[in-house]
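Notes from the pairing session

We agreed to fold both candidates in a single pass and log them together. This is the raw record for the first candidate, unedited. Please don't reformat it; downstream parsing expects exactly this layout.

Candidate A
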Amino acid sequence: MCSRYSLTSPHEAVRAYFAYGNEHAFPPRYNIAPTDPAAIVRSGARHARELVLVRWGLIPSWVRDIDKFATLINARAETLAEKPSFRGAIRHKRCLVPADGFYEWTGPRGNKQPHYIHRAGWQPGVPDADVPPLAFAGLYEDWLGPDGSEIDTMAIITVPANDMMKPIHDRMPALLEPADFDAWLDCRNVDIEEAVSLLRPAPDAMLWSTAVSPAVNNPRAEGPELLMPAAPKLI
């Protein structure tokens, strides 16, 4: 699963990579957690790409009482067309989730070691225009409450881990490259079967893993120090 990620790339770099037309600003986030505001890119008016902020944790449109519904932060690619919570969104509301990397943990409860999974070549605190953001495949929903309240939400799609990830976790976000963005976002002309065929584990050489500070274990922690390599453990 994916339960924490970051997005700290400059707006200009994110906008250039995802080619959206609006100029929505967002602050750098080093530790995005479930229920936090999260940026997504979707097909908007006249099918132009737009970036909007939504809540991480999908609420299907048919839910009546959100207080009794466990929000869905991830959706498994293998069962998207079968699960009632995702059947409508995979057909009509696909999106991209910009990120720089995501976190996973190893080790026993109470002594978990966080790992930051990022593009090969990325280094903490070293801006590099040759290391673009990542694009998670996602789904979004618009929930309308009986009192007229509205909440826009999203979930990140996961696939089986590649060989690089397997020692850390058995799942990983589905990553898309720019050549697949149009097909993924085109819910009018690209059907479920074709869209799901784009969801596969990333190539092993695409990503690296860096053990980082346990400070990120706190979902309220923020700041660039979270991405610094962890100090070696004494034996």
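Candidate B (folded immediately after A)
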Amino acid sequence: MKYVALADIPLIEALGQISPLSSKNTLRSWVKEGRVQIDHAAAKSPSLIVLKGQEVSVGQRKKIIRSGIHILFEDRDIVVIDKPKGMLSVATAFEKGETVHALLKAHFHPRKVFVVHRLDQDTSGVMVFALNQEANDKLKALFSVHDIERAYTAIVEGRPAEDAGTWQSFQCEDSSYRVYETDDETKGRLAVTHYKILSSSRQFTRLELKLETGRKNQIRVHCQSAGHPIAGDKKYGARTNPIKRLCLHAHLLAFKHPLSKKQLKFESPIPEEFNKLVNVVKSDINTQQPF
């Protein structure tokens, strides 16, 4: 359910436009439950003013399992979740603590849960897992040919010279599991990231980034190479850590359902602490450049 404001309007009234038969108490409960977003950012109060041109959306009631994992969607074939920061997607050779994959396996037992893709431990946001082999194979095929839309929000140090652009390089991993860029096309794998500036402050810039490829640490390496590492990313050159986390969030995942072929789109609210560093205001929205 979505509504684009035709003029500045209180959020509670905008929600009334979306669901005119719902009581104001019901509309307020949607905000309290974290189901309401304004331009992809969680709305914290029904008294907020929605500016002309901003989009108000209402998501499904959240289903939460252990450790704060939100299930955004599930059926017999797939499950889409909102991953918290600081949690491993899957176990590694060196880290075998609590992982999203392990918690989902416990939740769906005795059914199998298949890993389709990963997010870095300190990156939050939308992920999809398969619940059977056929869905797993078809989802991985979508990822392999990049027939899937993935968008991220990042807070980076400084401000890129261009308002929008594309970063492209060959990347490979060294023996210490650090990804770096190389001119050797036979050694590295092509990584392509499209970016645009959403807003900036004196110290930081808020970027939206879309992946054309999905290499390990791709966005983090591209931001470092551009001279604007992601805030909180000490591994890849950050000098600051203003909110004690990596400022990278996977806010959008869109793809065709692997079996039904229905087009699906899932969004995760931008973390509120990102707004404390660089907010997006009306004038920024009106001047954003398209990808």
